[in-house]
Design goal:
It comes from Faecalicatena acetigenes. With 61 residues, this protein is an all-alpha fold. It is built from three helices and no strands. Helix 2 packs across helix 3.
């Protein structure tokens, strides 16, 4: 079974090769609105934003 250190190394390598970070700046008040909406939807802020992007991209195809 992998150790926590092995898992951490794997996660870092995976992130470097498979993920692209997108910085997003929003006003603090807007963040709180997003956080509340995400909570009501039972999602994380990150998941909520990703889902919103996916839904808009689908509509615009």
């Amino acid at each position: 079974m992998p150790t926590k250190e092995d898992k951490a190394k794997y996660d870092i390598q995976y992130a470097k090769t498979k993920l692209k970070r997108i910085p997003l700046d929003v006003q603090k008040e807007k963040y709180e609105e997003i956080k509340t909406a995400a909570g009501h939807a039972g999602e994380s802020v990150n998941g909520y934003i990703k889902k919103a992007i996916d839904e808009r991209m689908e509509r615009e195809q």
